[in-house]
């Protein structure tokens, strides 16, 4: 998958340096895609790759109020997370996208 973000360039540089310094013991590079947009009164952030065959699970929030945190699972493993009109830094959104955990109220701010 192509992820043309400046943070992806930084991650690739770190992976290249690690491979150069540690040779074959370096882990394979894995992109950590994230995207965001603000359109039609919605602020949306997404981390991970949303599987096309899995419905989202509401982690916190309310669909009627159009403010929530969502998570997608593939084979029972978290693979993506998104916020809709919910303030959360991208770094905080990466956790529910990759770890099977519940979010405390402090983590969803």
Give structural notes.
- The protein is an alpha+beta fold and 109 residues long.
- Helices cover 24% and strands 32% of the residues.
- It has a 5-stranded antiparallel sheet, covered by helices on one side.
- A hairpin with a 2-residue loop joins strand 1 and strand 2.
- It is elongated.
- The two termini are 30 Å apart.
- The C terminus is likely disordered.
Quaternary structure classification: single chain
Q: What structural category arises from helix and sheet content?
A: alpha+beta
Number of strands: 5
First-residue to last-residue Cα separation:
30 Å
How are strands sequenced across the largest beta sheet? 1-2-5-4-3
Chain-averaged pLDDT: 80
Main attributes?
24% helix, alpha+beta, disordered C terminus, 5-stranded antiparallel sheet, 109 residues, 5 strands
Short description:
With 109 residues, this protein is α+β, with helices and mostly antiparallel strands. It has two helices and five strands; from the N terminus they run αβββββα.
Give the topology, please.
Blueprint (H helix, E strand, L loop, with lengths): L5 H17 L11 E6 L2 E7 L8 E6 L4 E8 L2 E8 L5 H9 L11
Antiparallel strand pairs: 1-2, 2-5, 3-4, 4-5
């Amino acid at each position: 998958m192509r992820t043309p973000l400046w943070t992806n360039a930084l991650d690739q540089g770190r992976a290249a340096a690690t491979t150069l310094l540690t040779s074959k013991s370096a882990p394979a590079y894995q992109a950590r895609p994230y995207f965001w947009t603000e359109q039609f009164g919605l602020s949306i952030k997404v981390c991970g790759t949303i599987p096309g065959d899995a419905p989202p699970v509401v982690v916190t929030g309310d669909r009627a109020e159009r403010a929530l945190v969502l998570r997608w699972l593939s084979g029972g493993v978290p693979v993506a997370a998104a916020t809709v009109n919910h303030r959360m830094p991208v770094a905080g959104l990466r956790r529910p996208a990759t770890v099977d955990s519940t979010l405390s109220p402090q983590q969803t701010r």
